[in-house]
């Protein structure tokens, strides 16, 4: 036989069940705050890693585009050896640190015979137009210095910064202080890609 205290407890319990039924029970404020803080920590780490990934992608993409332009200039130089155009001595790539651009140019005769002046110059060179012949770096990137690379047919002979006996040159694309990509070009025309 139930006692009076037991019935009173039972009645209070059943009243609270009617007011706050278990099927409509929710989360406590503490549980909600913990969940929101965990989600915000995860989102902040994802945002920072995605911006880092974007910068890496732009850096690597610019390195590949520059390699393609150098290879294109080399290829154009080989095709010049087979053509009958007598004013073009070779093709080159000008890397301009100040304007953050790299472009292909024709090295023209400066006298009766080739070679030209083997560097990009106002009187002895002609810049090629078109998107295949030029790249402009993203604002967050920069070149480490100015460089001229000229390919003289038929081999093609590679002349770096006007010096036919130049040691290999490192063309560096920088994104901040620690992120760099290098293109190493030697006097034989071999192109090597590296990253720091």
Molecular structure report:
This protein has 196 residues and is an alpha+beta fold. The chain has one domain (53-195): minor pseudopilin epsh domain (minor pseudopilin epsh fold). The protein is 36% helix and 28% strand. It has two helices and ten strands; from the N terminus they run ααββββββββββ. The longest helix is centred in the first third of the chain and has 54 residues, at 29-82. The radius of gyration is 34 Å and the shape is elongated. The model has no long low-confidence stretch (mean pLDDT 80).
Which features would summarize this protein structure in a list?
single chain, 196 residues, alpha+beta, minor pseudopilin epsh fold, six-stranded antiparallel sheet, four-stranded antiparallel sheet, 10 strands
What is the secondary structure topology, with strand pairs?
Elements: H1 4-19, H2 29-82, E1 88-96, E2 101-108, E3 125-127, E4 134-136, E5 142-143, E6 147-152, E7 157-160, E8 169-175, E9 179-185, E10 191-195
What coarse outline follows from CA principal-axis ratios? elongated
Strand content: 25-35%
Total number of beta strands? 10
Count of helical regions = 2
At CATH level 2, the architecture is: 3-Layer(bab) Sandwich
Return the domain count: 1
Q: Report the end-to-end length measured between terminal Cα atoms.
A: 84 Å
Quick rundown:
The protein has a single domain (53-195), classed as minor pseudopilin epsh fold (3-Layer(bab) Sandwich), CATH 3.55.40.10. The chain is 36% helix and 28% strand.
């Amino acid at each position: 036989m139930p006692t009076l205290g037991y019935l009173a407890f039972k009645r209070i319990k059943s009243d609270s069940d009617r007011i706050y039924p278990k099927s409509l029970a929710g989360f406590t404020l503490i549980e909600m705050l913990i969940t929101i803080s965990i989600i915000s920590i995860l989102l902040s780490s994802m945002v920072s890693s995605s911006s880092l990934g974007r910068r890496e992608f732009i850096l690597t993409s610019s390195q590949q585009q520059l390699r393609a332009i150098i290879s294109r200039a080399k290829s154009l130089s080989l095709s010049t050896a087979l053509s009958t155009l007598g004013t073009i001595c070779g093709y080159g790539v000008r890397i301009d640190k100040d304007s953050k651009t790299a472009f292909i140019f024709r090295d023209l005769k400066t006298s009766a015979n080739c070679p030209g002046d083997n560097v990009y110059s106002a009187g002895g060179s002609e810049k090629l137009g078109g998107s295949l012949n030029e790249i402009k770096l993203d604002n967050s990137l920069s070149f480490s210095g100015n460089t001229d690379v000229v390919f003289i047919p038929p081999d093609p002979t590679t002349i770096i910064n006007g010096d036919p006996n130049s040691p290999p040159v490192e063309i560096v694309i920088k994104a901040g202080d620690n992120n760099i990509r290098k293109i190493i070009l030697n006097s034989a025309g071999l192109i090597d890609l590296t990253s720091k």
